[in-house]
Amino acid sequence: MGRKPCCAKEGLNRGAWTAMEDDILVSYINDHGEGKWGSLPKRAGLNRCGKSCRLRWLNYLRPGIKRGNISNDEEELIVRLHGLLGNRWSLIAGRLPGRTDNEIKNYWNTTLSKRMLQSHGAGCSNHPQAKPPLPPQAGGEAQAPPEGTSSSPIRTKALRCTNTVLAVAEGFHEQGRAAPEHVAEEDQLGDCLSIGSIDLDLEGIELGFMMSPWSGADGLGGQHFGAPGTEADDLEELLGLGGDGDGHGGLGDLELAWL
DNA sequence: AATCCACGCAACCGCCGAATT
DNA sequence: AAATTCGGCGGTTGCGTGGAT
Which InterPro entries match (predicted)? Predict the structure, then answer.
């Protein structure tokens, strides 16, 4: 119900994109902008599925894409963010301007996961096969915070932070938001920080996730938020979610703890 | 020189939530 | 309010390439 039939089974081109297809897609999007992926192939004259067009554009053709040569800073950030967020590739990619979720996912699966295994052994909780921190449905409720409490999960929606937003412990509320959609919803942290040249924002990090046992047990990032087993209340206080809603000092502490 | 194998990457698939009708 | 469509995400697959045998 509510699901459109798969468009990829009706004689459409599949597999690797040709240079001509790329040209058509790029010129069309340059003229008409992104969006309307479902009807784009028809309008652009491409014999491709809309999803395929979107993927090609986002992962390869979009301006500003960095390809290859992931720097040490970026790699370190990926490891840290993966420790915090798990396999939320789009969320991680949102913190790495110019990088795509697909690239980061591939990089993790091919390079970093092996390194993690080597350096942490087979039991490493950051292995990609590790369970996601918060199973969305009923089975995972045991780990989820109780409903109706101030620690209900914050929605995780990847938001790009391509604009430089420098937020330090002092006065970050006055700093500009990176994008209109960053205008705070009440359940979002809505804060950015910067590591070197890499901008971060903490929007959408699930509190429940950060409290999940495996994210901080032996991983590479979670423990920076506090010792494993940190009480939810402590984290709420740390994040300023349970108090007066200001969250000012807590986030400052958080940043310091993380960095 | 030929074959095999492992690796990296691009692309596909299925599902889900948001938006729209 | 329910049904439908759209956009996006994460997992997986398959192909091309380079190194080893």
Answer: Homeodomain-like_sf (IPR009057), Myb_dom (IPR017930), Myb_TF_plants (IPR015495), SANT/Myb (IPR001005)
Q: Which nucleotide is nearest to A105 (CA to C1')?
A: C10
Q: What is the pTM of this model?
A: 0.58
Q: Are A57 and A25 in contact (CB under 8 A)?
A: yes
What are the C-alpha distances in Å from A176 to residues A205, A243, A252? 19, 24, 17
Instruction: Mark the nucleotides of strand C covered by protein, meaning any atom under 7 Å from a CB.
Output: 3-12, 15-16
Q: pLDDT tens, A49-83?
A: 888 998 899 888 888 888 777 888 888 888 888 88
How far: A8 CA to B4 C1' (Å)?
Answer: 33
Can you list the residues of chain A whose pLDDT is less than 70?
1-10, 117-259
